[in-house]
Amino acid sequence: MKIKGIIFDKDGTLFDIQRSWSEWAKVFVTNFSKKHDIDIIKLSNVLNFDLSSNKFLKESIFVHGSVDEVVDAISQKFPQVMKKMIHEGLFEGSGDAKQVPLTNLHKLFTNLDTITFGLVTNDSENNALKHLEQHNLTKYFDMIIGYDSGYGSKPEPGQLEAFLRKTNLLSHEVLMIGDSTYDLVAANKISMPCLGVLSGTANKKDLSPHTPFIIDSVDKLEAWLKKTFLVS
């Protein structure tokens, strides 16, 4: 099978979720709980963020869910706080969170320069652009899609279908790469081959029901592609 396009998830796939977001999350739960007089432990638990280790726990809603899902989860626990305030709090400083790449992404994208790249994330499109711009990476992508770009969010396949329309590629010609079940389920819904990476919070047991293809991280991607797929 020949792969002509690759769609990447952002957090946990291209960037280290813990090193990129843990400090921001600690500041968020601290400031937000004080501002709205809510329990910081309960707020941290909604995000599945452990304050003692300063890490996101397995399959945190923040890691795999869309911003709207995170807002809803916090709102259900703290209905006294307006959703608008929750939304504003989540975006405070989030675009400036210092992203830590999981490998030399310039080298990876350059070595695979015959492939068309897309990025789909359940973060906002603006945040995605800001995070890629931190490392001068936007130039590699034909399409960058967030939960608010008008195509829905994962695990629904609308973002992936938008990339196919933009590039005139067929689903079997594109590989979806992600660290979450949301990424893989979205691909499965349109029969798009997908590759799970273990660089997020999900483990092999979580991902293997959705794909036979799993690697540790995108730093193994080139070697895996040469063994598994033809590339254009």
Number of DSSP strand runs: 10
CATH superfamily membership of the largest domain: HAD superfamily/HAD-like
Major β-sheet annotation: 6 strands, parallel
| Helix and strand pattern | EEHHEEHHHHEHEHEHEHEHE
Strand order of the largest sheet: 6-5-2-7-8-9
Overall pLDDT metric: 95
Assembly state (oligomeric): single chain
Helix/strand/pairing class, anyone? alpha/beta
Describe, in plain words, how this protein is organized in 3D.
It is built from eleven helices and ten strands. The protein is α/β, with parallel strands linked by helices. It folds into two domains: 2-16 and 98-231, Rossmann fold (3-Layer(aba) Sandwich), CATH 3.40.50; 18-96, no CATH class. Helix 4 (67-77) crosses helix 5 (83-91). The N and C termini lie close together (10 Å).
Q: What's the helix and strand layout?
A:
Elements: E1 2-3, E2 5-8, H1 17-36, H2 40-46, E3 49-50, E4 55-56, H3 61-64, H4 67-77, H5 83-91, H6 105-111, E5 116-120, H7 125-133, E6 141-145, H8 158-167, E7 174-178, H9 181-188, E8 194-197, H10 204-207, E9 214-215, H11 221-228, E10 230-231
Helix pairs in contact: 4-5
Task: Briefly summarize what is shown.
The chain is of the alpha/beta class.
Task: List its salient traits.
232 residues, alpha/beta, Rossmann fold, 2 domains, six-stranded parallel beta sheet, two-stranded parallel sheet, 10 strands
